[in-house]
Design a protein that fits this description.
The structure is a single chain. With 188 residues, this protein is an all-beta fold. 2% of the residues lie in helices and 54% in strands. The protein has one helix and 16 strands. The strands form three sheets. A six-stranded antiparallel β-sheet has the order 1-6-2-3-4-5, with no helix packed on it. A five-stranded antiparallel β-sheet has the order 9-8-7-10-11. It has a five-stranded antiparallel β-sheet with strand order 14-13-12-15-16, with no helix packed on it. The longest helix has 4 residues.
Length: 188
């Protein structure tokens, strides 16, 4: 692991602090009129999600942790667990649905996801930014309703609700942003 000075911590850096793994969410370099400058850092615990505000002076050093990123393909759902397979070693990895969160609904057979590991322990997962899904049901268009925003609710094949433009009807394929859970465009 590499040591970095407290004033070099940037958002996205993963550091070891007080015996835990923390990711820097926000940083702010503060130069008070009296006393030495410091870096005000908002940290989020990678294991349990708690937040912490901490001051790091330039003279302090912290351990910067390098996370291993591996590609896994999604295999199937087994009870409350999701089963993935390592692309290189073909070993299987089971993750709780809660670990993936509400985005678990977007997992499709064979989908490649990136899992962040620290000492062989999964601490984060990244799905593809966009997926293509079929609209299962969409409300009919109400003519003359163009003054207000003209998006209408629709339910996709995975059961997730999303707002779509009025020209989208059931049976059509659309591209959805998995991070924001929003309609992007009509699929080709």
């Amino acid at each position: 692991m590499a040591k970095i000075n407290g004033n070099e911590i940037r958002p996205g850096n993963v550091i070891e602090h007080d015996g835990g793994l923390w990711v820097a969410v926000k940083t702010n370099a503060v130069k008070p009129g009296k006393g030495g400058a410091y870096n005000q850092v908002e940290l989020k615990n990678l294991i349990n999600g708690t937040k912490l505000n901490e001051r790091f002076r330039a003279a302090e050093t912290v351990e910067k942790v390098r996370l291993e990123q591996k590609d896994f393909s999604y295999l199937y759902e087994q009870g409350e667990a999701l089963v993935f397979m390592d692309q290189e070693s073909y070993e299987q990895l089971e993750l709780d649905k809660d670990f993936v969160g509400e985005r678990a609904a977007f997992l499709q057979d064979g989908m490649i996801v990136t899992v962040e590991l620290y000492e062989e322990r999964p601490i984060g997962i990244a799905l593809p930014d966009y997926v293509t899904l079929t609209i299962a049901e969409a409300d009919p268009v109400v003519k003359g309703q163009t003054a207000a925003s003209s998006y209408k609710p629709a339910v996709m094949e995975n059961g997730v609700r999303v707002m779509v433009p009025p020209f989208i009807s059931s049976g059509e394929k659309i591209v959805v942003d998995t991070n924001e859970i929003t309609y992007v465009r009509r699929a080709d």
